[in-house]
Design a protein that fits this description.
EC 1.14.11.61; Jelly Rolls; 14 strands; 8-stranded mixed β-sheet; 10 helices; dioxygenase; IPNS-like_sf; 2-oxoglutarate-dependent dioxygenase activity; alpha+beta; oxidoreductase; 350 residues
């Protein structure tokens, strides 16, 4: 049943499991007040730099040393870049996008089986907003999160997307490893000895941003940086992703490119590189006319890994900016609060 009062909207979206997809389907004339962001948390379109863009790197010739150099340079300057001709088949990308739409089109009675209260495993969970029990103002997004490195949980993955998610993760693994190897090369670090640290666990999110009334008052995802080593993001052709230009209050739009993958550095790699590589703050604008989806894969350290500046990075006398912290403690700190830019990094600072 549709909510009858303003107070019922949170209950309808969060407790009853309808999410913002359910609210969007109601074709509301105005944005519920629980989703109206304070002015400082809205994306100010006058601060989007139309003339600037992040690098687009062609990976068709991996034997060319310039490719690895471009990747390291982009990770230092921007924290974000796009890759094309990466070798993940276009049909695999299309299939996982279609599977995402198929999952979110399921009746709420089916989807609710995967919410935190009902999911048979902690490794599969359907959520709305970011932290709906903590967020004072809710974000306009629903997402299914799957810990793909927990192989035993795969029997509980939704059948609407299971096969396509598995294929997308499998076909992307080589590219993710190659990117991390190039980034380690830029630090004079041997990738083979660090692979388990950089990719100890892997998570995938299926993100759904439905049409939003008054999108200029809402936010799809609030400003934050990822806690991953590396994020490997497939976005559809709708657009909405913006990154903050380093050390400024301006934003850069990340346009959809058919077949491209958006790569961004996560906090874990910023810490491991002692700040040489940067995790960039980013957000997603809500959209008033189109449903948007994106599918990020997060390569993360394992929960019981200790992260801190790598010894190879400090061997020339460079002073550490970050202390050594248990990765699970860092992640718990991130999930204790609503999105707040890059403030989580302060947890690891000396």
């Amino acid at each position: 049943m549709a909510p009858s009062t303003t107070d019922d909207y949170r209950h309808f979206a969060v407790t009853k499991g309808h999410g913002v997809k359910g609210l969007s389907d109601l074709q509301l004339g105005a944005l519920p007040e629980q989703y109206i962001q304070p002015v400082e948390e809205r994306l100010d379109m006058t601060k989007v730099l139309k003339e600037e863009s992040i690098p687009v790197i062609d990976m068709s010739n991996l034997d060319d040393p310039k490719v690895a150099e471009q990747i390291a340079a982009a990770a230092e300057k921007w924290g974000f870049f796009q890759i094309v001709n990466h070798g993940v088949p276009i049909e695999v990308l299309e299939n996982v996008q279609e599977a995402t739409r198929r999952f979110f089109a399921l009746p709420v009675e089916e989807k609710i089986k995967f919410t935190q209260e009902h999911s048979p495993t902690n490794s599969v969970r359907l959520t709305t907003s970011f932290l709906p029990k903590i967020d004072k103002v809710l974000e306009w997004k629903d997402y299914l999160s799957i810990l793909v490195s927990d192989k035993k949980s795969s029997e509980f993955w939704p059948s609407a997307c299971k096969q396509e998610v598995m294929e997308y993760v499998e076909k992307s693994e080589f590219v993710m490893k190659w990117l991390l190897k190039a980034l380690m090369q830029g630090l004079n670090v041997d990738m083979d000895s660090k692979e388990s640290l950089l990719m100890g666990s892997t998570r995938i999110n299926l993100n759904y941003y439905p049409v939003c009334p008054n999108p200029e008052l809402a936010i799809g995802v609030g400003r934050h940086s990822d806690v991953s080593s590396l994020t490997f993001l497939l976005q559809d052709n709708v657009g909405g992703l913006h990154i903050r230009k380093m050390e400024t209050d301006t934003w850069i739009y990340v346009p959809p490119i058919t077949g491209a993958i958006v790569i961004n550095i996560g906090d874990a790699l910023q810490i491991l590189s002692n700040g040489k590589y940067k995790s960039a703050e980013h957000c997603v604008a809500a959209n008033g006319s189109h449903n948007r989806i994106s599918v990020p894969i997060f390569a993360n350290p394992s929960p019981d890994d200790i992260i801190g500046p790598l010894p190879e990075v400090l061997k020339n006398g460079e002073k550490p900016i970050y202390k050594h912290v248990l990765y699970s403690d860092y992640v718990k700190h991130f999930y204790r609060k609503s999105h707040d830019g890059k403030d989580t990094l302060d947890f690891a600072k000396m």
